[in-house]
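Exam revision sheet. Question 4 asks you to relate a sequence to its structure. Input first:
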Amino acid sequence: MNTPFKLLALALVAASPATVAQTEAASGAQSRDLQPRAAEIAPLAVKSLLLDLTQAGDRLVAVGDRGSILVSSDGVIWEQSAVPVQATLNTVSFANAQNGWAGGHDQSILHTADGGKTWTKQHFNAEDSKPVLSVLALDAQRAIAVGAYGLLLSTADTGKTWSAVEAPSLLDEGPHLNGVIRLNNGDLFIVGETGLIGVSSNGTQWARLKQPYEGSLFGALAHGNKGAIIFGLRGNALMTSDVRSGSWKRLNTQTVQSLFAGSALPGNDVILVGADGAMLRVTQDGKVRVANAVNLNGKSEGYGTLSGVLPWKAGLIVVGEQGVTRVPAAP
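Answer key, structure tokens:
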């Protein structure tokens, strides 16, 4: 089995052996075919494995297993979009209400210009075992995609062409790049395996920074003007006010569950989610509170492993191994 990409990290931590085998078999069959096949419309997609979630204007867009892309305007009713690939999709990002990209296995990169209703294939390479793990839409024309074994691609023409970015300080050892975000000062920031972190002011020239932690990092959130919160394996999370400073504060997360995703909440706090339903609320000064999510009946509920979270109408929308779940009040 390959080292844990975002999908396999979830599967290894939370899914049953049968689920892992089915996921690998589906991905392997797609790779052997070497040509993309359209995703099937599945009535239970909303309750199947979903790996990322974002907002496009007044819509929510989620992506996941077997090429599923789901769109909702209210967080309750979800419609599955027609998708030109069956490859598992790990990531989705929008530049505005209409223009966005999704990426995943078989090095798939898809584009939408209508808020996620329809998608076109822009990049696909099943022969190269480098899945896209994170995509960042910079604007309607520009985006960056990162992934396994040092995959780093960019486009400046709305995805008509995707080109490899030369970044030897980051890529010489072929590390898995697990997440890419934009800091609040406009700089781009990458996290990856073995604590890799890198920063760029223009997306073409990258500097590898001193790593504050040697384990895998799965994601990051902007913090302040030049800082970030980074999180990953076994509940490790750190914070800095300046990613270039080399000074990081380790957060007391009170968990050993791996953290896969996060989002800013209204106000100054952020929410982090991960394996076995881990849900943490982090304040601007780095204090952490373990959040107890409550379901729609007012009772605590196990949400399984979570891979995406967004604030929504005073509550949260979370996605993961159980599909989409609404949390009526932000913990």
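Marking note for examiners. Confidence is low (pLDDT under 50) at residues 1-5, 7-32.
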